[in-house]
Design brief:
With 266 residues, the chain is α+β, with helices and mostly antiparallel strands. Helices cover 21% and strands 33% of the residues. It has 5 helices and 17 strands. The strands form 3 sheets. Strands 1-2-13-12-14-10-11 form a 7-stranded antiparallel β-sheet, covered by helices on one side. Strands 3-17-4-15-16 form a 5-stranded antiparallel β-sheet, covered by helices on one side. Strands 6-5-9-7-8 form a 5-stranded antiparallel β-sheet. A hairpin with a 2-residue loop joins strand 10 and strand 11.
Length: 266
């Protein structure tokens, strides 16, 4: 039996609406699921202005931590060693370098681990990217935040974990004033931005060398971050065990990692 064009259009519209509803329900279920249930694909590839980035999400309430030294005071240095010293029922969902460090791998600026301040905040201007003010602090507390360093120092929020780096990429919705649209200095870069409600943090690493301006615009204009912080370049690395990604490189200083329980054995 033939259907009229109008009937076919109504059928197609109904089918598309059903698919949209199912997709929306699936997305809500995935967002509400505990992080270990999302660990199969914690990171995704995103395109913006002809450039590609790998983005990993964490949410307020997830087990997101910063690491530097082990219980014996020895540098952890690599995601592989971090994985080896985790409790046997825990696993890395993703791990990334988390801020700049001196040649001895000690943090350049503020570093808070488990509520203990291991290194003080630095608010003075200085050399290199870290000293290109304004710089900032990524804080893991009840919410997730990126705060300009002098604002942070004037009224420190309660952070279980915090790392200072610089420069800021996005400050209250504006790009860092020193970034030039026609800049020519490029690197593989990684950074972190947060959602306006403080419930989501995006950890991004470029898949090719990018300028500061390009990287900052990605956080602001594509991810929607009002505040974002540069973590580093050249040494930038990402490990995502469930997706088979394990960037190689020399031992690093601070590491940020999303931790989850290992799935129960059948």
């Amino acid at each position: 039996m033939k259907r009229s064009s109008a009937t076919l259009r109504r059928a197609m519209k109904a089918m598309m609406t059903t698919r949209a509803i199912k997709a929306g329900v699936a997305a809500l279920v995935l967002m509400a699921a505990p992080v270990w249930a999302r660990a199969a694909a914690p990171c995704s590839d995103m395109d913006f202005d002809g450039l590609t980035y790998t983005v990993c999400e964490a949410h307020a309430g997830d087990d997101l931590r910063l690491y530097l030294n082990d219980s014996d005071g020895q540098l952890i240095g690599t995601p592989e060693r971090l994985a080896a010293i985790l409790p046997t029922d825990k696993q890395i969902v993703f791990a990334m370098n988390a801020g700049m460090y001196h040649p001895d791998r000690k943090p350049v600026g503020l570093f808070v681990e488990g509520g203990t301040e291991e290194h003080k905040i630095v608010t003075s201007e200085g050399p290199g990217n870290f000293g290109l003010l304004p710089n900032g602090v990524f804080c893991v507390g009840k919410a997730l935040s990126v705060v300009e360093s002098r604002t942070f120092a004037a009224d420190p929020p309660n952070c279980r974990y915090a790392t200072q780096s610089g420069p800021m990429l996005v400050i209250d919705g504006a790009l860092h004033p020193k970034f030039l649209a026609d800049g020519t200095s490029t690197n593989i870069r990684n950074g972190v931005g947060v959602s306006p409600n403080g419930q989501t943090a995006w950890f991004a690493i470029s898949d090719q060398p990018v300028t500061f301006h390009q990287f900052a615009r990605f956080f602001r204009d594509d991810l929607g971050a009002k505040n974002a912080l540069y973590l580093d370049g050249k040494v930038s690395r990402l490990t995502v065990p469930a997706q088979g990604r394990e960037d190689l490189g020399l031992p690093m200083g601070p590491i940020v990692a999303l931790i989850a329980p290992k799935p129960a054995a059948n």
